[in-house]
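Subgroup meeting minutes
Present: P.N., E.W., G.H.
Scribe: E.W.

1. P.N. recapped why we're keeping a running log of single-chain structure predictions: easier to compare across weeks, and new members can see raw inputs and outputs side by side.
2. G.H. added today's entry (227 aa).
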Amino acid sequence: MRTALTIEPGKAAALFVDLQEEHRKDRRYLVEGFDAVIGNVQRLQRAARTAGIPVLHSAYVVDLAAQRARPFHPVMADGTSAFSDANDPMSEICAEVGPTDREPVLVKSDASAFAGGDLAGRLAALGTEWLFVAGVWTEACIAQTVKDAVDLGFRVALVKDSCGSGSAAMHQTAILNLANRLYGGAVVDTEGACRLMAGGTVEAWRVQGSVPLRFTYDTAARLYLDL
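Output recorded in log:
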């Protein structure tokens, strides 16, 4: 259901997940509507920086020569990672949404931005209560990052139109599934997130009870728009 939400900027941080070149250049890993996602992320980053909200970035980078691969990790014939290989220029974060000199980049080789790094400690040190989350892919790295954030006690503001996946259906159903269990958090769009970052109040979708969003192939798109 939609309820009024206000977030104190001093208790918020913004995390941008895996916005790397391969998602707009590698035909195997293209994100549908990626240019629109990038544009929305730029708006979020401007709003966060203006409000003094800490901005953090994550990048999925796999270096099979330097680390033990996860079980069943896909490998190319030449022994390199099938995606996000450390030596592939397309693993770089897109320049227009990349970090400033002071913004940290957390490099990971797993879905969650909390995997194998110090993200939780950084957020705790910043006094973070609310974490704005945006990036790709919605059903994979975004989903696992959001779930881990909630498990660690952070409230997540999931910015639905600043996330993306391989197709609209993949993205929309992933958002709906996350919304059903986004305890303590909220689903907002980019406009609403920017208003929240500025200290305003918005009507945000927040889960009440257990699995309120029951959807089918025919109803998922409409329910996504209603969030």
